[in-house]
Amino acid sequence: MDLFPDDERLRRILRRVLANRDWRLLNHPELGVTEAEAVRQMAVLLQAWSQATGRAEMSDELIERAAVNVYCQLLHRALGLERTAVQERAFAELWTYVTPIIRRVLRDDHDAADCANHVLLTLWQHRGAVRDPGCFLSYVAMIAGRAALAIAQAPSHGIVISDLFGDGDDEEDERAEWPDVSTTANFRCIEDQEQIEQLAGVIRGCLRKLRAGAEVVIRLVLLEQTVIEAATALKRSAANIHVIKFRALRKLKQCPDLLAVLGLPPNEPAGGGV
To answer: Where are the domains of the chain?
Structure first.
């Protein structure tokens, strides 16, 4: 085993780590981080670890940890680049990472897919809370494990109108301000095709500037499609569907036309109209 590794050894191990995990964000033009820059960052990390521990020898395992650390920083940064191809790729890679963790707990593909989408939404909303982006995947695994356990321990429930709006809340205080409408109706009970079409038309009208969001909400809520079915129909990744739904729901919560159709009291906009 060599002492401190040269750039060629770092590059070889970095490429192996990326290939084994199908990680593709390195060298992406929207991020501007090249392989050479990643190797330089790995060398800086290894130097710091060497000085902290007094160890001169760098094993392949330690070099792999440095490669993962550097890539985690890249992944965390990509997650915040709104509505870009690089963000889409980051969601896809996170989906691949969290789904096996969740499936081991829930042991059901549909439940695991729903939970994975919830986890991705949580990561997107709270990415600013990550103190060390180099340990981002450890944070991701913790969030995924907690979410899966919460679902495993909770009774299942249907989709009601309160769920439609509740998914759009990003703070617990907002939920308390929204009226309790869980007993007024249940979208699973809507069997009248004319009523479904009316609601779909209202949703599309409310979301004229967010057409993708309208179609996602209609498919998931009114047509009761699964995330996978909606993603396939709309030609989007499953990982992206939940975030699109989140944006759409925040708009729908402020739409007077939809509130009127549902028989709900008007809600003051939080800032700007639909």
So the answer is: 7-153, 161-262
Cα 173 to Cα 41, 89, 119, 170, 177, distances in angstroms = 41, 32, 20, 9, 7
CA atoms of 34 and 176, how far apart (whole Å): 47
Rg of the Cα atoms in the chain: 22
Question: Are the C-beta atoms of residues 73 and 44 closer than 8 Å to each other?
Answer: no
pTM: 0.63
Sign of CA dihedral 172, 159, 209, 92: positive
pLDDT in tens, 133-178: 999 998 898 899 888 888 887 765 343 333 344 433 333 332 222 2
pLDDT tens for 99-108 read: 998 998 888 8
| Length in residues, the chain | 274
Place of tokens 């679902």: 151
106: left (phi over 0), alpha (psi -120 to 50) or beta: alpha
Residues of the chain falling short of pLDDT 50: 1-2, 157-191, 268-274
The secondary structure of residue 154, as a DSSP letter, is S
* Alpha carbons 96 and 116: distance in angstroms, whole number: 9
pLDDT number for residue 172 = 33
Asked whether 258 and 139 are in contact (CB, 8 A), the reply is no
Handedness of CA 119, 125, 252, 238 (dihedral sign): negative
Q: Which of 201, 165, 169, 162 is nearest to 183 (CA)?
A: 162
Closest CA to 116 of 106, 125, 129: 106
pLDDT of amino acid 179:
27
pLDDT of residue 224: 66
